[in-house]
Amino acid sequence: MAKIRVAVLFGGKSNEHSISVATASGVLSAIDSSKYEVVPVGITRDGVFVPFKGDPATLSLSNGLKTIEPEGSTIRFAMDGSCELLEKDSSGKERSLGVIDVVMPMLHGPFGEDGTMQGFLELVGVPYVGNGVLGSAAAMDKEFSKALFKAAGIPSPDYAVVSASDMLNNPESALDRIKDLGKLPFFVKPARSGSSVGITKVGSMKDIPAALTEAFKHDDKVIIEVGVVGREIECGVLDSLDGGALRVSVAGEITVRGREFYDFEAKYVDSDAATLICPADISSDQLSQMQQMARKAFKALGCKGLARVDFFLTDKGFMVNEINTMPGFTSISMFPRCWQESGLSYKDLIDELISLALVDSAS
């Protein structure tokens, strides 16, 4: 029986480029080579598709944050609906790499997780793992995901939205909207970013301008969110192959030491800054409530395939913080760990995601 040909995309133009590279390392190292023929495709920070022919282990977080660099050859998808992948060498000579059965876009952040890559793959006509254009775009933009949560009756932290044009044309009004949120601390975040890039925890209004400046480096729209006192709980969601009920994993918990919050350094650089506990120590009733809310949030954003749902567990119950439509798959990532603790191994999780993509494309 012929192997399923899988193109794994990683890197990309976003500020989460290196995290995507680390994610791909885990996937490329774990995927079942007896069942799949894998074609690794890196995407440079400039958006150029290039072949990757090295050892995936060199891309792991244990070797530091890596980037994809151009090396002469480039990759492109045929645009005639054939799902063919083509490689052009430095002399301009092009050769076929054959037809791709499914793409795993292991990309984080803008130009990968926000619906843009999903739209491109729809145009190419190749099946792909994960969320579609709408779910990806809605989850990436915190303003719209929060509006959808509110419409669905899902608790989420209070927030205000400030754009770069607001600060240019009417900064006093923008700052007043922030003050109206009430008691500090606030978290100032780029509206369309992830991995805690560009986020600042603010304890005084005098620090808001600097926090906005930092966030605006990554996006022209910023979310200012009221800080919530509670435990940080996460879980994974998977579609069902038979079209049945959404599957939700056990809960995982993040505890942070010596830092203001679970920032980029704590996630990917300082291994002593955070502990991931899985399964989390919550009651069976709390687990049931979390799983029910995760399903509701997944549906509210029109997600499909997979997602990680992030919660705050407060003394009043769960609040959804956000949904991540392509969660990390590194050795320390919560999504695969939650599924491992739920009885689905890393290799089987990858197999499940590919199967979901192929079933969805056939329907």
**Overall number of strands:** 17
Low-confidence stretches: none
Annotation field: number of helices: 11
**Radius of gyration, taken over Cα atoms and rounded to an integer in Å:** 21 Å
**Helix content estimate:** 25-40%
Class from secondary-structure proportions: alpha+beta
> What is the total number of structural domains?
3
User: Which of globular, elongated, flat, extended, rod-shaped describes the shape?
Assistant: globular
CATH superfamily of the largest domain: ATP-grasp fold, B domain
Q: Please, what is the average pLDDT?
A: 91
What share of the residues does DSSP label as strand, in percent? 25-35%
Cofactor: Mn(2+); Mg(2+)
Domain ATP-grasp: 146-355
Pfam family, one: Dala_Dala_lig_C
Family: Belongs to the D-alanine--D-alanine ligase family.
Quick structural gist:
The protein is of the alpha+beta class and 363 residues long. 31% of the residues lie in helices and 26% in strands. Strand 5 (84-88) and strand 6 form a beta hairpin.
Explain what this protein looks like in three dimensions.
By secondary structure, the protein is an alpha+beta fold. It folds into three domains: 4-128, Rossmann fold; 137-141 and 228-362, 2-Layer Sandwich (D-amino Acid Aminotransferase, Chain A, domain 1); 159-226, ATP-grasp fold, A domain (Dna Ligase, domain 1), CATH 3.30.1490. The protein is built from eleven helices and 17 strands. It has helices spanning 17-30, 116-124, 133-140, 142-151, 164-169, 171-179, 208-216, 264-268, 284-300, 334-341, 346-362, and strands at residues 4-11, 36-43, 49-51, 74-77, 84-88, 94-99, 102-105, 159-163, 186-190, 200-202, 221-226, 231-238, 247-248, 252-256, 274-277, 306-314, 317-324. The strands form four sheets. Strands 12, 13, 14, 15, 16 and 17 form a six-stranded antiparallel β-sheet that branches. It has a four-stranded mixed β-sheet with strand order 3-2-1-7, with helices on both faces. It has a four-stranded antiparallel β-sheet with strand order 8-11-9-10. A hairpin with an 8-residue loop joins β12 and β13 (247-248). It starts with a strand and ends with a helix.
